[in-house]
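Support reply, case 0932

Customer input (verbatim):
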Amino acid sequence: MIVDNPAVCISIYKDVFNPSNFINRFEEAIANGFGEDLCWDVSRVGNGENSQYRTSLSSSVTTLLPPYPEDELSSVFRKEVYRPTIDVVHDYVREHRLFNGAHELISILKYSGLAEYHAHHDHSPDSRRVFSLVACLGEPDEGGELEFPNFDVKIKLNAGSVILFPSNFPYTHIAHPVISGTKYSMVTWFQ
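Our regenerated output:
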């Protein structure tokens, strides 16, 4: 696994996992009506509102994790995506001497047809978020870069990569519009 640090406290872990097996099964499960919790819905901004500020689709993956029973889809997610991702989280925590807190709910985001998320940071007075995680489950053909304007860093994540960074204001970031293809991201935040 290769780790790149394009700016202070921003760490990109490359080739963490191969997401194609999971994301294909995930889309099939949604298409086949796998369950109430696995469905695409509009992504919402921090206060829970629907806004043109954020135009991706979102699906929770809560039912794919314990204590929910393991099935074929959750087994693939747990072994091939979640566990390798948590391993890099432990590395990031050690590297930056952070408290290894719990993560919030995990969501899969789907960006296509110019979907984007304007400049924002992940911490607020109502949250205790310390650092953020974005894992690339599928990269678009064009667009979809993640930019940190305060650090003059613009990144196009490859499928299977995980980026970790502080959640606070200096780490304001932008998910640029996806021009063609589809970008899938897994996101969560650690307290």
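We compared this against your earlier run and they match. Two observations from our side: The mean pLDDT is 93. The first strand starts at residue 2 and ends at 7. Please reopen the case if you see a mismatch on your end.
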